Amino acid sequence: MSMSDDLETPRLLRVLAGEAVWPPPVWLMRQAGRYLPEYREIRAQAGDFLTLCRTPDLAAEVTIQPIRRFGMDGAILFSDILIVPWALGQSLRFAEGEGPRLGDLHDAVDLRLDEVPDRVAPIIQTVAKVRAALERKTTLIGFAGGPFTVACYMVDGRGGEFLKTRNLAYTDPALLGAIVEKVTQATITYLTMQIEAGADCVMLFDSWAGLLPPDLFATYVIAPSRQIVEALNTRFPHVKIIGFPRLAGLLAVNYAAQTGVDAMAMDTTTDPALLAAHVPSKLALQGNLDPLLLRAGGPALLAGVSRIASAMHGRPHIFNLGHGILPDTAPSHVADLVGALRALAEPPDMST
Ligand code: CP3
């Protein structure tokens, strides 16, 4: 690769390839959402959230809104992890102010893998529209839920403690295994389509990975994630994958070593320097400012941004939150965060 090609590689993709870039590239989970007045306007126009996800022109517009306003290095596809159960034929609605509600699931054979490509087609159109509209320097991040997290919503039918799903791991492991396997296959199909339509990298959101003990974590989080990584690596050797085993604690070290992901997102409870000492030096780490500190704003926010970026100086790091932006966050705080990062000077050399 020539020097100029090197310089033209987008900053976020350079970090995913294992390079330390300063100041670090930034994007924020839930950067498109209710805290933005321009999002609320499009959301009202669409009517409900799922219609917004399935209307490519509107979904593309809300994906791009935060890039236009703040100029992050990455745009994340506007959709939801629960599109996969819906694509497999399970009914899904978002009850206003209550979160997702899914239909009863009695048997994994009711889940229709053959229907997935047609059902996700509008979301794939959104990917193509966004990639065509963005500048090359902005990385388009495709995503899906981790199979265990998606299965949690499918079995329990709604958010919460996911006791039905966790009980199933002991009372009917064959059923939970069959559901997770269907979701894994659907996810491989869905992410393959996103990459073919223009996603530059993909992220697996395993938001409820931290609910499992170590043996079940290996079975339901690590194994299916590795299956997805291997399938995508075979087809797309250059496309990088970010994993997010949220609240997994020390098990995140196993996740990093065993799934084959190129990057790992850190939740709010993770000490970045401590985790960095236990994962390969080329593995990119992403995160992990407390969304409540972003909401609070002011000098404490600026200090928090600088503390996390400095702790990760010299290793591949993508700045992000530890979880999604809260809906009552002031947009000006997001501008402050991005501005503070871009203004960071090289930290003093602490080695002497
Ligand atoms: O900006 C982005 O991060 C991209 C879009 C995105 C959404 N959801 C949009 C959304 C992504 C990547 C997700 C992932 C997602 N969805 C996760 C994993 C990440 C996490 O937060 O832990 C989970 C668990 C879900 C399931 C989900 N979707 C819930 C529980 C809810 C209801 C709670 C809520 O905040 O309203 C959603 C709805 C949802 N997904 C909204 C958005 C913008 C709110 C819809 C609205 O009312 O406009």
Explain how this protein is built:
- The chain is an alpha/beta fold and 352 residues long.
- The protein has one domain: TIM Barrel (Alpha-Beta Barrel).
- Helices cover 50% and strands 12% of the residues.
- The chain is built from 16 helices and 9 strands.
- The strands form 2 sheets. A 7-stranded parallel β-sheet has the order 1-4-5-6-7-8-9.
- Helix 12 (251-258) links the parallel strand 6 (240-245) and strand 7 (263-265).
- The longest helix is centred in the middle third of the chain and has 25 residues, at 173-197.
- Residues 1-6 have low confidence and may be disordered.
- The structure holds coproporphyrinogen III.
- Coproporphyrinogen III is lined by residues 29-34, 43, 49, 76, 78-82, 94, 99-100, 143, 159, 205, 207, 324.
Layout of secondary structure:
Blueprint: H1 3-8, H2 11-16, H3 37-46, H4 49-53, H5 56-70, E1 74-76, H6 83-87, E2 92-95, E3 99-102, H7 116-133, E4 139-145, H8 147-156, H9 163-171, H10 173-197, E5 201-206, H11 214-235, E6 240-245, H12 251-258, E7 263-265, H13 272-276, E8 284-289, H14 291-296, H15 299-311, E9 317-321, H16 331-342
Parallel strand pairs: 1-4, 4-5, 5-6, 6-7, 7-8, 8-9
Antiparallel strand pairs: 2-3
The protein binds coproporphyrinogen III (CP3).
